[in-house]
Fold this sequence. Notes:
The complex is a heterodimer of chains A (283) and B (373). Chain A has 14 helices and 2 strands, in the order H-E-E-H-H-H-H-H-H-H-H-H-H-H-H-H. Chain A has a domain at 59-248: MetI-like fold (Orthogonal Bundle). Chain A has helices spanning 2-21, 40-45, 50-57, 59-92, 95-106, 113-124, 129-137, 150-174, 178-186, 191-202, 204-219, 223-229, 236-246, 250-282, and strands spanning 24-25, 32-33. With 283 residues, chain A is an all-alpha fold. In chain A, strand 1 (24-25) and strand 2 (32-33) form a beta hairpin. Chain B has 373 residues and is α+β, with helices and mostly antiparallel strands. Chain B has 2 domains: 8-245, P-loop containing nucleotide triphosphate hydrolases (Rossmann fold, 3-Layer(aba) Sandwich); 252-371, CATH 2.40.50.140. A 6-stranded mixed β-sheet of chain B has the order 6-7-8-3-9-10, sandwiched between helices. A 5-stranded antiparallel β-sheet of chain B has the order 13-12-11-14-20, with no helix packed on it. A 5-stranded antiparallel β-sheet of chain B has the order 15-19-16-17-18, with no helix packed on it. In chain B, helix 3 packs across helix 4. Chains A and B meet through helix 9 and helix 10 of A and strand 6 and helix 2 of B.
Amino acid sequence: xxxxxxxxxxxxxxxxxxxxxxxxxxxxxxxxxxxxxxxxxxxxxxxxxxxxxxxxxxxxxxxxxxxxxxxxxxxxxxxxxxxxxxxxxxxxxxxxxxxxxxxxxxxxxxxxxxxxxxxxxxxxxxxxxxxxxxxxxxxxxxxxxxxxxxxxxxxxxxxxxxxxxxxxxxxxxxxxxxxxxxxxxxxxxxxxxxxxxxxxxxxxxxxxxxxxxxxxxxxxxxxxxxxxxxxxxxxxxxxxxxxxxxxxxxxxxxxxxxxxxxxxxxxxxxxxxxxxxxxxxxx
Amino acid sequence: xxxxxxxxxxxxxxxxxxxxxxxxxxxxxxxxxxxxxxxxxxxxxxxxxxxxxxxxxxxxxxxxxxxxxxxxxxxxxxxxxxxxxxxxxxxxxxxxxxxxxxxxxxxxxxxxxxxxxxxxxxxxxxxxxxxxxxxxxxxxxxxxxxxxxxxxxxxxxxxxxxxxxxxxxxxxxxxxxxxxxxxxxxxxxxxxxxxxxxxxxxxxxxxxxxxxxxxxxxxxxxxxxxxxxxxxxxxxxxxxxxxxxxxxxxxxxxxxxxxxxxxxxxxxxxxxxxxxxxxxxxxxxxxxxxxxxxxxxxxxxxxxxxxxxxxxxxxxxxxxxxxxxxxxxxxxxxxxxxxxxxxxxxxxxxxxxxxxxxxxxxxxxxxxxxxxx
Lengths: 283, 373
């Protein structure tokens, strides 16, 4: 049964997208050819890797991929730096507080993602809340230009995805036995050293899970760069959207999506193989 | 051959390894330790015994450095240690949960403390191997803590806390998680290791049998105070309060006004037909209320009146058969119940007494301890 859902919800859509990526654009409905109307054999014989070759020829695409990887990577690092202390504080909070804190982390999901990103436009714009506040307390003389820069994109991505970083790390830290830290101190560690040698290694699983949960959606992110990033921010999600809806070139858009998927799958496979090897070594 | 008895606490010239002076510890308005003064000497195996919440764990955590006294001073080999963090003390602790690092192997767990001290590589590995040998864990060096049994984990925890050769080792309910058989074996192992290493051990336990078995001295605690500190034998045979007499083992208490009948001999009118006779080093004034504490195994049970200084008639109310022993609950005419214990030395013998039998219980004048509180 679980394999059925995997097949229906992942593999079949992927195969359809993959097939479109091997087709040619056409002024028709659907806007590509060949289709099944010509029969399976005829259709298969007309498929080629032309679109993938095209992606390598135009430097827009690999630049967009690289830029997306960079933005996703830096955002993940920031989300970790912001999320870990929050998760740590939550796990160390008195038990009766933890449910409330957890609620506060999940609360933003109750409003629409789109509205929350729009709210950042109001905060970050030249006449926005942030600039007005900073001008009022006199830290700056001229308003900062944040909106429509990559800084705004980083802020947006970190803000949106930090709960996904917090939750798995919190789960790992909550299980951590306080007496392990005391034992480390008793054996000669300072507080800081005990944190590095005990807390961090024992929350490694949560850190890795959190990083994947932030990195993967951030890499294909479309809404945040288009609302906060302006024209200067190049991200593959935006390129994909434009190919699809502005150029109506479904085959190229599909090829972009297939490559994005491959980029995402490789680190996941590497990570899983590493985990497996570690488990085997332990037995 | 003259054997010197290990009793530094009786030597006025001995300087204690640990010394608590009027230590009080408060958590908010709760007083965990109340004006406690105590000396513990080098190479002692010292047990802190008491019910949960009596402050014994707080005392241990103060020794380890996780808590600081609110008042009073604490010293380790003459040096005031209040305020010194746990990582700067020559004290190691074996945690109740063992607190083994799950991501490190047994070997790495034991080496952990030595690595923090920057011990040279060959010295470190020699020391770890020595610890593994001491605790018979050589075969498990490469395993992770979750791959070994509870008893083995307990030994890893012990090896880890001994590896740095601390002046003082604290053991927080070290055998609590083991089953009874393993616990008994491990008690002897602990004593063995303590003797071999010459380390001072302070053990916290609520199991009185464990404390009696392993310790050179036992401190019985109640509500943040030490009620009595003495050798296991003294604690058992010469408790100085009803609390201690009752906490350690089983006891009969006969309470009533005391009257002197001779040198160090008193009679206690507990409300029976005739007062009972007891010797006491503690002196009582006539009419003072005294409590005579007698252990059940020191009370004999007979069918006819025995020729003993104290003999009381009653009837058997209940019999508890424990295998090696039988405890008879004998009800006296005034309603008081006396527990008398006999060893079952023969395998198949007809029980001499049964329920409702009229019997005599007797004990000598020196069998009990006369207490004033």
